[in-house]
């Protein structure tokens, strides 16, 4: 059901990307579950969670609308890294059914993205000093 959904952004994103949207398939609406289920932003190379959002409790980060799910992330992603979004069973509860859990989406090709590498920068600091010499000459003055 969600395989036909449009989701964005994908591909290259800013490390500060914070708005993620999944449009539901036509005529499908989902409601927020009352039991814990997570949306996971995962590092592709290690399969480790980079950040997770509990859809039942983190209502300011995961917003269920009538035609879309909006995820508002509040992290800076590591530059030059590949990620994907994984969705636990139970995140999508169709409003028109009595299903308890929805299927999970753990396929790393479903919602992949990556961040641009940052150029290496080198900071060089130099200091310059000048020295000066003052010569005092004693003079004898006769009055």
Quick recap:
The protein is mainly beta and about 140 residues long. The chain is built from no helices and eleven strands.
Describe this protein with a few key phrases.
143 residues, mainly beta, Immunoglobulin-like, five-stranded mixed sheet, four-stranded antiparallel sheet, rod-shaped
Structure report:
- With 143 residues, the protein is mainly β.
- The protein has a single domain, classed as Immunoglobulin-like (Sandwich).
- The protein has no helices and eleven strands.
- The protein has a five-stranded mixed β-sheet with strand order 2-11-9-5-6, with no helix packed on it. A four-stranded antiparallel β-sheet has the order 1-3-8-7, with no helix packed on it.
- 21% of the residues are buried.
Return residue spans where pLDDT drops below 50 for at least 5 consecutive residues: none
Secondary-structure element sequence? EEEEEEEEEEE
Percentage of residues in strands: 25-35%
CATH topology: Immunoglobulin-like
What is the fold's blueprint, element by element?
Elements: E1 6-8, E2 11-13, E3 19-23, E4 30-31, E5 38-43, E6 49-54, E7 62-64, E8 68-72, E9 82-87, E10 93-94, E11 112-115
Parallel strand pairs: 2-11
Antiparallel strand pairs: 1-3, 3-8, 4-10, 5-6, 5-9, 7-8, 9-11
């Amino acid at each position: 059901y969600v395989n036909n959904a449009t989701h964005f952004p994908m591909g290259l994103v800013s490390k500060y990307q914070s708005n993620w949207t999944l449009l539901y398939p036509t005529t499908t609406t989902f409601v927020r579950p009352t039991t814990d289920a997570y949306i996971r932003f995962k590092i592709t190379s290690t399969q480790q969670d980079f950040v997770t959002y509990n859809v039942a409790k983190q209502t300011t980060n995961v917003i269920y609308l009538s035609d879309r799910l909006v995820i508002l992330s509040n992290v800076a992603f590591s530059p030059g890294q590949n990620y994907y979004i994984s969705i636990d069973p139970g995140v999508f509860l169709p409003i028109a059914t009595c299903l308890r859990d929805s299927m999970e989406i753990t396929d790393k090709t479903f919602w992949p993205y990556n961040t641009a590498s940052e150029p290496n920068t080198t900071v060089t600091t130099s200091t310059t000093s000048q020295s000066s010499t003052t010569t005092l000459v004693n003079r004898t003055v006769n009055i």
